[in-house]
Amino acid sequence: xxxxxERGRIREIKGNIVIIAPDKSAACFGCMNLECKSGDGLISAxxxxxINLEPGQMVEVExxxxxxxxxxxxxxxxxxxxxVAGYTLIRFLFPRAGEGAAAFTGMILLFAAAFVVYRIRKKxxxxxxxxxxRIIS
Length: 137
Prior knowledge:
Blueprint: E1 3-14, E2 17-22, H1 34-37, E3 43-46, E4 58-64, H2 65-93, H3 99-123, E5 130-136
Helix pairs in contact: 2-3
């Protein structure tokens, strides 16, 4: 899976953790600016390669595309399961119910599950695990 790449300027270094202010001029589409919008707009990244870094340097950070895929599955799977469960449940509980009633119940559970996912993600947004890959001159 592809890597999610961001660029930014180092604000602070705390041990092996680097705090980065994202480069607003760069195309920051990978995480849909979720990291930038949360909190103070800074990205925290690990420096596993022990690259010699200093505040003010422009760096490139990456996160595994698998993280993004897992977050997408966690967001889309519950509403889909809600739709299927609602449709199937009505058919099981009320065998004489028509297609409309089953579809309506499925849609209600789809929106209910989507709302639950939304509320959970609002309280605890998914975190991308960024690592510093290189210094940009």
